[in-house]
Structure formats: C-alpha cells, structure tokens
Design goal:
Blueprint (H helix, E strand, L loop, with lengths): L2 H8 L2 E5 L5 E12 L2 E8 L8 E6 L8 E3 L4 H17 L1
C-alpha cells in the first residue's frame, strides 16, 4: 500500500452530488460547533472542484449516512470559517 493510499484511508472522505448530478469527493477537514449546531468544513480532493465548502452537519445512525444541509447565512459561514482558521493555526 502506498503512502497516498494510507493517507486516503486515514482521512474521512465525503461524497456529495453537485448541481449537475456529478459525484464530488471531499475531505472532512473539521467539524466546527457554532451556536448549538455542527458544521462540516469540507475540502475538495480534486483541486479543480473549487474551494472550501461549509455545510450544516448532523450525525445520524441511519444507514443512508449523515445529513448535510446548505448554509445560506453569510454571517454563520464567516463565523464557522474563522473558527476553522483559528483551529488550524493552533494545531
């Protein structure tokens, strides 16, 4: 097994569907708590797929997987992104 395969095995990969129905793979960079909710900070594995994505996150025991919802509020997106940056700097 190559080093890249080991890295992929250790990171949590989330597969989402884009607006065109294509599957896009993301690395779960962090889960950030903000105002009583959880937000997933996702980074695309393919650099051509854009930048960071922040979605509201709810962990479930459902076999279909965890729930991810769009966040429309710019203030929440900014606050979660700033917490993510602070966490990344302090690690």
């Amino acid at each position: 097994m190559s080093e890249k395969d080991l890295e992929m095995e250790e990171m949590e990969v989330v597969v989402l569907e884009d607006e065109d129905g294509n599957e896009v793979e993301f690395e779960m960079a962090a889960i950030i708590a903000h105002e009583g909710k959880q937000y997933a900070v996702l980074m695309p594995l393919d650099e051509d797929d854009g930048g960071i994505v922040i979605l509201e996150y709810e962990e479930t025991d459902d076999e279909e997987g965890d729930l991810y919802s769009d966040v429309e509020d710019e203030d929440i997106l900014d606050a979660v992104f700033n917490k993510f940056k602070d966490k990344s700097v302090n690690e």
